[in-house]
Amino acid sequence: MRDSFAAYHPLINFLYFALVIGFSLVLTHPLAQGIALVCAITYSVSTTGKKSVLFLLKYCLPMVLLTAFINPAFNHEGTTTLLYFSNGNPLTLESILYGFSAGTMLVTLLLWFTSFNRVMTSDKFIYLFGKVIPALSLVLSMSLRFVPKFKTQMATVAEAQRSIGRDIYSGSLWSRTKTAIAIFSIMITWALENAIETADSMKSRGYGLKGRSAFSIYRFDERDKYSLIWFSFCGLFLLAGTMQMAFGFRYFPNIRYALLNMTTIPFYFVYFVLCITPVIMNWKEERKWKTLISEM
Amino acid sequence: MKRIISLIITIVILLSFTACDGSFAQVDLKEPIAIPENGIIEKSILDKMKDNNAIAILTGESNGIKYEWTVFGSDLEKTRDVNLSLDLNKTETGLKITFAETEDFGFPALLSIHLNEKWTADSAIAYAGDNHVYSVSITGSKTSILNISVHKIVAVCEILPDDTKFSESASSTETNSSENTEQNAGGTNKTDDYLTDVKDSDNRVYSDGNATDQDKYKTDPVPEGKPLPVEPENQEINNKKSYTCTFSIECSTILNNLKDLDSDKRELIPSNGVILAPTTVTFYEGESVFDVLQRVCKEKGIHLESSWTPIYNSAYIEGIHNLYEFDCGELSGWMYRVNGWYPNYGCSRYQLADGEKVEWRYTCNLGKDIGCDWMK
Questions:
Q1: What is the mean pLDDT of chain B?
Q2: A256/B25 Cβ within 8 A
Q3: Where are the domains of chain A?
Q4: What ranges do the domains of chain B cover?
């Protein structure tokens, strides 16, 4: 599915991710965590397909299990003792559940951030923050861009070196190590020089100077306006809910939580709708597109 | 557009003002309530506490001595108007309490009396005539606080510092045992205290008070007449020889510092501050306080978390009954006292002897509030 949510105004994209990432960090209620996880999975699977399913199975599932497994080894707090370790410390139910919760939160955040990286490209980021915090947003977008750029440049350099006989794939271990070190040294020099060059080039264009405008193709449409209202409503509503402990949940020393009732359910519902909004937007756009095609 | 926005804002504001019943089962801590002149606390106040599962502190003063009652809403069953005022009079030997209330409250309440002086005793006992009516634990840093769990009301009682102090009764046995030690351990006692192999429970090595330096595990010199630390790795436990000692675990200092307590932990606090009432336990020759604590906690189902600390060659007790270090202020944690003395080394290095009285106590002020004087 095409990600038409990414085509919304950068402010909308940023606001959405700020909200979902923020609430995923703060809310520890298993139901809220479940909602966030399901929505994060749905969003990333519906937009990136097979790749993210593989990523989920390969890395995310083991990560949840690992934290659930490791946490009780270091954390012995909790009133429900299941059994005792050899050093006499108890294994508690609360610490296992807390491990699960922490693992789920980690995975959810990971998924949100991969989507964030895909949607919030560096030009969007600079567009949003270039005026407010020019230096920081340049540094941020440069460092975000650095890793993929470094990887491609490394491949290029390795190829070039290979053509003059310095192959990192053949030869003795010693010669291969030597070549790898040489390539790495080239890369460091390149990275430093590249950073200075970029900074100089940005400066010479007058980046961050007063009165300068930057070209952007973003327009704040009617749909962006409604999305803005919707997201700010969700943000305020959920903030009020959090402050009233509608999502209250504590793991230690014993498990205590806010009950689900007529006053708390609306908060969970709004949280779910907030998290799933981009998927709904994409689905609506897709349907519109298909009807348009069929009408032609 | 403006209408939509104002509508949203109204909804949000309305929602945040409606008391959302996200009932979190938190135990409320009420602001201290001053006991009125006539001393009567009305039934309605107690009913409210019962319904909210709250903890209330009720304060009063008599003859310049402040006192406070700590009442747990969870303890209240039948409520009625109760008279909580007291008449406190200092006597030559102790403190005389006259209760204004004549009938039992119907619920346990903790009475803390903030004295204007320091009592040196480890504990105290309240007598009505010749009858022992309450056991009193003494806390407080510069001035003493007497903590009494009141179930039954006696018209008048007198609190006397516990003179059958362990340090005195124990010192006689200590002299006996140190004589034994000298006979058995002989010269080794003087040449190298710390490497002496202790084989018998009654044959511990006692400090002569001459040491001036820290030992290799950073322990300051042990006061004269007190047992020297033993190293757990050298201890052999002899399952054939068993002895008994008394163990107790209490946290009454938390009741005097409830406002510093982590609010999540409030419901763990027993209303009289006692987690384990003094219990006689069996131990085997060569076992340390830590070994026995671990076993007692396991048997009684009390939560215990400890961590081995190589630098002190001992286990460190992080939390008992889910009450951890730093849970009640940054100077709080667990300490142990044996026969009225707080050993200045870890509990894995204290070898128990027959008939000793071990108390695990929670401190909120580095031990100063529970009568430990060596912590700086």
A1: 83
A2: yes
A3: 4-130+218-295
A4: 22-161, 165-376
Which CATH class name applies to B165-376?
mainly beta
With a cut of 50, say whether residue B183 has pLDDT above it: no
Residue-level length of chain A: 296
Give the span between the Cα atoms of A137 and A152, in whole angstroms: 23
Query: pLDDT, tens digit, for every residue of B38-76?
Result: 888 888 888 888 888 888 899 999 888 999 999 888 888
- Which pLDDT belongs to residue B18? 54
Sign of CA dihedral B253, B257, B260, B262: positive
- Separation CA A283–CA A244 (nearest Å): 34
Residue B128's DSSP bridge partners are B131
Q: Give the minimum alpha-carbon distance from B265 to chain A in angstroms, rounded to a whole number.
A: 7
Query: Out of B11, B264, B324, whose CB is closest to A250?
Result: B264
Q: CB–CB of B255/B269 below 8 Å?
A: yes
Greater model confidence, A74 or A137? A74
d(CA B200, CA B191): 20
8 Å CB contact of B322 and A88 = no
- Contacts of residue B197, defined as CB under 8 A and 6 or more positions apart, other chains included, come to B234
- HSE of A227 in the Cβ direction (CA atoms, 13 Å)? 24
Model confidence band, residue B4 (pLDDT cutoffs 50, 70, 90): confident
Partner-chain residue, chosen from A225, A232, A264, that has the shortest CB–CB distance to B22:
A264
Measured distance CA(B124)–CA(B147) in Å, rounded? 9
- For the stretch A226-229, contacts whose Cβ atoms lie closer than 8 Å and that sit 24 or more positions apart, written own/partner, are A227/A8, A227/A12, A227/A277, A228/A11, A228/A12, A228/A15, A229/B4, A229/B5, A229/B8
